[in-house]
Amino acid sequence: MEKFSSLIDYNTQFPDFVTLRIKGEIRINVLEPIQKNLESIYPGCKGKKVLFDLSETAYVSSSGWSLILSAYQNIQDRGGRLLLTGMTTEVRNAFELLEFQEFMENYPTLADAYQEALKEELFLPQGKFPREKVDYF
Question: Domains of the chain by range and CATH?
Fold first, then answer.
């Protein structure tokens, strides 16, 4: 089994972004360090984009998906925005099976998430963003 790590990256070039990088497998026995990182992010996440970089995450258990769902709700409730990035095929399959793509933003890479969020900032007032996906004509 791969060694697990959970690290927070505060981007000085883009202060409205916080990245939580998770490496290894998200199972019940590793939820505590992820939760501690999330609890340090929550107080300051208003107006921020919190990116979950899952590019080095091999597996997410049901308890891991529960934690991600809880993080999504906590971040939304505090005026932030959760974006999932870099899901492997196995992780993406579970994500889609749970139908989380219906309400959680997800991007193939971290760069794609940055690019899309920055593009949206050009068209939205500071700190504001749509809560639902809307089709524009």
Answer: 5-121 (3.30.750.24)
Identify the burial level of 60 via C-beta atoms within 10 angstroms of its C-beta, where 0-12 means exposed, 13-18 middle and 19 or more buried.
buried
Structure tokens at 108: 């193939």
pTM score of the predicted model: 0.83
For residue 45, give both structure tokens.
């996440």
136: left (phi over 0), alpha (psi -120 to 50) or beta: beta
Distance of CA 113 to the CA centre of its chain: 10
Q: Is pLDDT at 50 greater than 60 in this prediction?
A: yes
Please give the helix or strand (H or E) that residue 89 lies within, else none.
helix 89-97
Query: From CA 30, how far away is CA 39, in angstroms rounded?
Result: 15
**Token output for 42:** 């929550």
Give the Cα separation of 40 and 113 in Å (integer).
22
